[in-house]
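Checklist before submission:
- one chain only
- standard amino acids only
- sequence pasted in full

Submission:
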Amino acid sequence: MSKNKLYKFSQLATFPNVYQNHRIEEPFVSNHLGEKISIKGKWDEVHFKNRQPITLELACGGGEYTLGLSRMHPNRNFIGVDVKGARIWKGARVAIAENISNAAFLRCRIERLRNFFALHEVQEIWITFPDPFLGKPRRRLTSPIFLKHYREILPKGGLIHLKTDDPTLYEYTLDTLKAEQIPILYHDDDIYAKDLPIPELDLHTFYEKMHLEDMKTIKYVRFAL
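Returned file contents:
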């Protein structure tokens, strides 16, 4: 492991807006004090100290969307989720520097979400430029396996947004939603070719900027469980 990563990991452990699950078989997270705690159903009480609606950004990477959404919606709370600590470090550091109190970060495997969020604790999910897993459809974040996990933390009608450059993931998601009889509220295979349906789509992740420079089209799906 590089010295740079070791430095980021050591800093990450001290960030008050980061919670880390170090053992996937355990439903606990470590906070900035090194305490192992159960946070499921307690995000309002333990971290945000309010009862504002919670939105997750899954596979958040550097947290560009988590930060952008939190700036755009100060009356909502946002949590970026990723398994890569070195990626989360970037967004968490910016949130601290800018005093963005409605943004937090959770380091865990996404298939373990139900260990850290209670039923109805999350109101909305954004999935921004995830790995399309071209050879492993079961690992795609819109596969039936993951949709089942989302149902365990979202209320009925909870919104999910997918933003991707990958045509295979886009078509797979539409096909999966139809097969699962899940209402597709909106979809577009080239969102920037016309007026954006919602202002949140004008936020760009690190990877999206790269894809746009490569002249790739950006696709979007919104659906409700």
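Reviewer check: The two ends are 40 Å apart (CA to CA).
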